[in-house]
Write a structure and sequence with these properties.
single chain; alpha/beta; Rossmann fold; 7-stranded mixed beta sheet; 6-stranded mixed beta sheet
């Protein structure tokens, strides 16, 4: 259920649905602002938690957002002796900026029309993100810009060399830009006689597609996010794998067993702040531990699992290799082998990044596991 926000404008009572991907609380009060508001005033009002509903030229709103963003930037920190402390402070800064930037609102009418001078047509992007609408909506300009960007990603797609095709990520579904983990799954020799596979936490469906392309006769791809289910289904259908891959809404495992189980879990054991961050952040490594603990019940005799995970959390001091090995051991599993690769994303080479020391040493590994 969406909350309804009410406000008074030009002497009339108005209301609209509240939309927030990062679960920001609905406004208790809404203040109308126009083209004449200065960036300094807007920033001060946003900083104290005042929601401002824009009623002016759309391009001016975008310029105002850029100005608020500059003012909300935290002065560059020097790394401390504790990467974990640096990381937690960084996440606090990110949350503070997100709160401030989320205070500038726009309204979509019941048909997702953005009724502002010089506003783009966002009806398709909003429908892709939210589904059909029958009521006006209030959302932050920041979120609106993100769904416009997501629409463009979906339209152009992300090229996956292992598939020689594009994957089209949907709004709220993590994009497979970190291609090294996809290539690991594409290159690792399949267990002998593998005819069935589970892709756990499928997201866009990219790994399920790779497994199908490699000849696995029956793949079940699971995810607990309905948006991911819709995204994976659309990608697999478009790529011609609908007959090989079954997509299921499930919290980790489907029923039954498979000869190969593949999982690329969230790799940072801390709290996500939006739906899409669940692909990266997992408090207490809940998904990883649940996957390992329940894995043995879902492997066919002689089968194996591929756990594909980054060691960035270890390099940041948020987890240890001993933690991972102990979890594998407690689950009654043994390590058959491990293949490592280095990240190719630009941040791994950005010397100005606060976490460059960790990112430059990051390794993504495919751990081959089997029951003892």
């Amino acid at each position: 259920m969406h909350a309804t926000v009410g406000w008074t404008e030009d002497g009339q009572q108005r209301s609209a649905l509240w939309r927030s991907e990062n679960n920001a609380p609905p406004p208790k009060a809404v203040h109308i602002v126009r083209d004449d508001i200065s960036a300094d005033v807007a920033y001060k009002r946003a900083s104290i938690g005042e929601y401002m509903l824009w009623r002016g030229d759309f391009n001016n709103a975008r310029q105002l957002m850029k100005a608020i963003t500059r003012r909300a930037q935290t002065r560059a920190r020097k790394p401390t002796a504790s990467p974990a402390e640096d990381f937690h402070l960084h996440r606090q800064d990110q949350a503070r900026r997100a709160r401030i930037l989320g205070m500038l609102l726009v309204e979509l009418d019941a048909n997702y029309v953005l009724d502002y001078p010089r506003a783009p047509d966002v009806r398709l992007a909003a429908t892709e993100a939210y589904g059909e609408s029958a009521e006006p909506s209030l959302l932050s300009l920041r979120e609106l810009l993100s769904l416009i960007g997501a629409h463009e990603w979906r339209r152009t797609g992300v090229h996956i060399p292992a598939l020689d095709a594009n994957i089209e990520p949907h709004f709220g579904v993590f994009s497979p830009l970190r291609g090294e983990y996809v290539q690991l799954v594409a290159d690792t020799p399949l267990p002998s006689g593998s005819t069935t596979a589970f892709d756990i936490g499928t997201g866009t469906g990219v790994l399920a597609a790779v497994l199908a392309k490699r000849g696995i006769a029956h793949v079940i791809a699971t995810d607990k996010d309905p948006r991911a289910i819709a995204c994976a289904t659309a990608n697999l259908d478009r790529l011609g794998f609908a007959d090989q891959v079954e997509v299921q809404l499930a919290d980790i495992f489907p029923a039954g067993r498979a000869s190969l189980v593949v999982c690329n879990p969230p790799w940072i054991p801390t709290k996500p702040t939006s739906g899409i961050e669940h692909a990266i952040y997992d408090p207490g490594s809940r998904m990883l531990r649940a996957f390992l603990d329940r894995l043995g019940k879902h492997l066919e005799p002689g089968g194996e699992a591929w756990l594909v995970i980054s060691d960035l959390a270890e390099l940041l001091g948020l987890a240890t290799r001993d933690d991972l090995l102990a979890a594998i051991d407690r689950a009654g599993l043994l390590v058959l082998g491990r293949t490592d690769t280095t990240p190719t994303h630009p941040r791994a080479r950005d010397a100005d990044d606060l976490f460059h020391a960790a990112r430059s040493r990051e390794t993504t590994s495919l751990w081959r596991l089997a029951p003892r």
